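Run log, item B.
One chain of 480 residues. Sequence copied directly from the ordering sheet:
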Amino acid sequence: MLRLLRGAVLPAAACQEGGGSGGGGESRYEKLFKKLDANADGRVDIAELQTGLSAMGIPLGKDAEEKIFQAGDTNQDGQLDFEEFMQYLKDHEKKMKLAFKSLDKNNDGRIEASEVVQALKILGINISERQAEKILQSIDADGTMTVDWNEWRDHFMFNPATDIEDIIRYWKHSTVLDIGDSLTIPDEFTEEEKKSGQWWKQLLSGGVAGAVSRTGTAPLDRLKVLMQVHGSKSNKMNIVGGFKQMLKEGGVRSLWRGNGVNVVKIAPETAIKFWAYEQYKKLFANKDGKIGTIERFISGSLAGATAQTSIYPMEVLKTRLAVGKTGQYSGMFDCAKKILKREGVKAFYKGYIPNILGIIPYAGIDLAVYEALKSTWLEHYASDSANPGVLVLLGCGTASSTCGQLASYPLALIRTRMQAQASVEGAPQLNMVALFQKIISAEGVQGLYRGITPNFMKVLPAVSISYVVYEKMKQNFGIA
């Protein structure tokens, strides 16, 4: 799912003392240091930094403040003395100066909205001039609707970003929100994240979050599969009846049947999708190595198809275990052995075509709805900041993913029925087109949406669980 996006533009942070870097620089640093050094012992620890920045209206968050300490505390004593503090700010200002110059395309000493639009476009993010103005408003201290070097420096003085990509990594799609349907475009990582190892920590955090999320909502997922396979006009299986049937047939443990495979396939699918996405992006990149929105979408869709092709036999196993009866299979490997013996290798790719076809409408609508919701929020509800906050991000991600599922659900249902056909007694082995025709003639369009209610019921708890677990995992790994 199109998961949670990360914003890089922080709340406005004006340095009251002013003054340029040159001659008055050190006195400005000294005044700042005294403000942060609450006990006046000539050293600032992380608690003083957090309290001081919060009092100055610059609450960065624990991760960002720890990054400042990692970069500035050269003698590793857990405190910043004035020399270390001053050296950190001087080094950081040099990086911010380079970032400022890379945005200031016409070299007039001011960043304008059109330059922000241009810079984001190069990174494959399209925004309007009005939206760019919202970003500038959060930095602009004198109301000119442009940002000069002093305003830029003061705003990003304590932001641990190191380059322009860090600063304008903004409303970026992410793989955090896991609702059990991994059809979305993979996450992207900066060169710094790749070199520092943050990328694998974030992927691992997302994987653990997905595993916990899927396990928490597994009973609803199994109910969805049963309704997709066995639901019909004559067998009107509903939520309550379906749960009673599962409990009667196999007890409480049966509610999680098939979840083991669903969790195990997260790791290989995520790894293959990430690797494939990087390769496809290189293929579609222009001479400068840049890639646009359309190319990014195509690369992501192809990466999703590549990952699905690689792990598809596990999708078949999950479905067979979910619709299987108590005692039919002793586990994942027993299920695979029995399918191979009775039906051959081809059985592991039943339903493959509708599954691959479902990626395009899912990912396309997910992206389109997300962008529309993001744009609406920025146009109508953003006041003095371009940072939407967690609730807006969760809402946009959940709504866009739900719309994507709604569009691709008929293909998902056909896929599941094709995967399960051989395990249903007396069921004819129909292909995709024949199954569509049979369902439409017997049940109408409504028949293509059997099981969608439990599917929608699991979205909100799945998103919530995966987000909470992801944040906890990131804290444990010490990543922002």
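Observations after the first pass:
- The chain has 21 helices and six strands.
- Confidence is low (pLDDT under 50) at residues 1-25, 170-177.
Flagged for discussion on Thursday.
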